[in-house]
Structure formats: structure tokens, C-alpha cells
Write a structure and sequence with these properties.
Helices cover about 40% and strands about 20% of the residues. The protein is an alpha/beta fold and about 325 residues long. It is globular and about 50 Å long.
């Protein structure tokens, strides 16, 4: 059995990290051969060819063919999974609305290429920021593909929240369950541990509310900026790791008695407007996902969630002409 996997921006830091981990079998397991289609902009083709050479030199038993191209139609040809990593970064003096419009052109074209060339049951994960609205744009330009085939990555935020809670409670990451990230992959996201467990204990019984609101939430929201300040570059290895976590759970199923965070097309759950890509607590089974329903949310949580929804509605308004 073999699967075709597309990575855009594959010569960039995240794409580079992703390619080798996927090729080694970390995404789909050692019994599945993967063919990698690597997409880049034309000026980065030489660097991309170098990535392809390195992949060849690894001689992974799980790696089939490798294609390096600047042609989106070729890159998405018969693709079963796509990681949309490549995006235009925010430049000096650029407003968020400018960033949205610049990236909208990229993701509109990629949505069309997915619609016309990919497998109709493709799973698409948008990593390039602003990820939620980029996913909405790509989906809108792929009318023949189920909108539920498009999601945006919140798993990095989810993993960051787990790590922060584990550090605070002096426990291991593996003991943390039922953390949730709501909303947008931005500083308006809401990291929620009201239903989280540390071992068999409620997280809310082990940490005080002041720490949650004044330390935990802002730190998870701004962790990306903290890493940029420390290393001079944005998160790459942790982002690639989270992307693999997200796609693997979506395809193969998430852990029992736990949930994950995925930004998916809102169906109106928890009063969130339909027509935006919004992060919810999710369980994955049989290649599909479902939202954890009927969670009791306090007023602080509801206000935080609505604040992030407002930002996503504003983003959608900024690019509505492309939908």
C-alpha cells in the first residue's frame, strides 16, 4: 500500500523537518510506503532539489518516489494528504489584513489545484499562517472536495498547553488529558484546562485561577513570539511535530479517553458562527472527527471563545471577495 503526500513550502524550515519525519514512517507507520510531492516557489527550486537529494540519501524503507516541483497541479496530483506549510510571512509595517490578502492569493490557487488534481478523499492540513482563514480560502476554492477535508493546525498550541500544565504540576506530559484550545491560531485563542485531568485529578484542583489567567493562558497564546525572541527564528521542529500529530490522529484515530484540538469548519456548536474554521476539542475515529459536545463553560470561557470568534469573522470579512 502506498499514499501520496504533498508538502508546500517544502524547502522552508517546517517543510524540511516534516519531509524527513513523514518519509521515515512517523505519520502512517512502517507498513505504508509514501510518495512525497514537494512544492516550492520557483526561486527556491534549487534548495528543494537539495531536500530531495537528502531524502534519497536516507534510503528510508518507507519512502517511494520524491517529486520536487514549482507546479501546483503536479504537486497535488492524486494526493491523499496535503500539508500546506508555505505562506507569505508578515513583513515590516504589514497589517494583518494585508497579510490575509497576500496569502489569500496563494491559498486560492492551491485550493483550485487540490480540487482539480488531488484524490477526492484528501485530508488537507493548513499550517501556514493565518492558518484558520487560509484553510477557509483553500476550501472555498475546492468546491468538489468535502469542506471537512480541510483543517487548520492548533495542535502546536495544544501541545504547548500540555507542556505548560505538566511543568506547573511537576508531572509528565503523558499524564495530562483533555486540554482544549478554542478559536483561532492567534493570540486570541483560548487555552482551556477547566476539563483537563492530571493523572486522575482535576487540573483545576492543582493550580490556582490566577496562574491560569495571568501566566498559563498568555504564555500559550504568545509562545511562538517567545521562541522567536530566544532563537531568532520561528518554531519549526515543534510545528512539524504537531502537524504530524494532527494528521496521524485524524487518519488513524486519537487516544482513547482523551481529546485533541483541531480547527475545523464550524457547524454551529457552542454558538459559534458557521462558515469559519474554528478550533474545538475533538475526537478522531475511523478517519473522521467529531466535536466534544455539552461541555459546561463558565462566563470567562464563553467570553474568551467569542473574542476569538470575532477575530475570525473579521478575517473572513477581509477576504470575502475570494470565497
Amino acid at each position: 500500500m502506498s499514499k501520496t503526500i504533498t508538502i508546500t513550502g517544502a524547502a522552508g524550515q517546517i517543510g524540511y523537518q516534516l519531509a524527513f519525519r513523514i518519509a521515515s514512517g512517523q505519520l502512517l507507520g512502517n507498513s505504508v510506503k509514501v510518495n512525497l510531492n514537494l512544492l516550492e516557489i520557483t526561486p527556491a527550486l534549487d534548495a528543494l532539489k537539495g531536500v530531495a537529494m537528502e531524502l534519497e540519501d536516507c534510503a528510508f524503507p518507507t519512502l517511494g518516489k520524491v517529486s520536487a516541483t514549482d507546479d501546483a497541479a503536479a504537486a497535488f496530483g492524486d494526493s491523499n494528504f496535503a500539508f500546506l506549510v508555505g505562506a507569505k510571512p508578515r513583513g515590516p509595517g504589514m497589517e494583518r489584513s494585508d497579510l490575509l490578502i497576500e496569502n489569500a492569493q496563494i491559498f486560492s490557487a492551491q485550493g483550485k489545484a487540490i480540487n482539480n488534481n488531488a484524490d477526492k478523499d484528501i485530508k488537507v492540513l493548513v499550517v501556514g499562517n493565518p492558518a484558520n482563514t487560509n484553510a477557509l480560502i483553500a476550501s472555498a476554492n475546492a468546491p468538489d472536495i468535502n469542506p471537512r477535508s480541510f483543517s487548520a493546525m492548533m495542535r502546536l498550541d495544544h501541545n504547548r498547553a500540555i507542556a505548560q500544565l505538566a511543568n506547573k504540576t511537576n508531572t509528565h506530559n503523558s499524564e495530562i488529558r483533555k486540554v482544549a484550545i478554542w478559536g483561532n491560531h492567534s493570540t486570541t485563542q483560548y487555552p482551556d484546562i477547566n476539563h483537563a485531568l492530571v493523572g486522575s485529578e482535576k487540573a483545576s484542583d492543582l493550580v490556582d485561577e490566577t496562574w491560569v489567567r495571568e501566566d498559563f493562558i498568555p504564555r500559550v497564546q504568545k509562545r511562538g513570539a517567545e521562541i522567536i525572541q530566544a532563537r531568532g527564528l520561528s518554531s519549526a521542529a515543534s510545528a512539524a511535530s504537531a502537524a504530524i500529530d494532527h494528521m496521524r490522529d485524524w487518519e488513524l484515530g486519537s487516544s482513547e479517553n482523551d481529546w485533541v484540538s483541531m480547527a475545523i469548519p464550524s457547524d454551529g456548536s457552542y454558538g459559534i458562527s458557521e462558515g469559519i474554521i474554528f478550533s474545538y476539542p475533538i475526537v478522531c475515529q475511523n478517519g473522521d472527527f467529531s466535536i466534544i459536545q455539552d461541555l459546561d463553560l463558565d462566563n470567562f470561557s464563553l467570553d474568551s471563545i467569542k473574542h476569538s470568534e470575532k477575530e475570525l469573522l473579521e478575517e473572513r470579512e477581509a477576504i470575502k471577495h475570494l470565497l
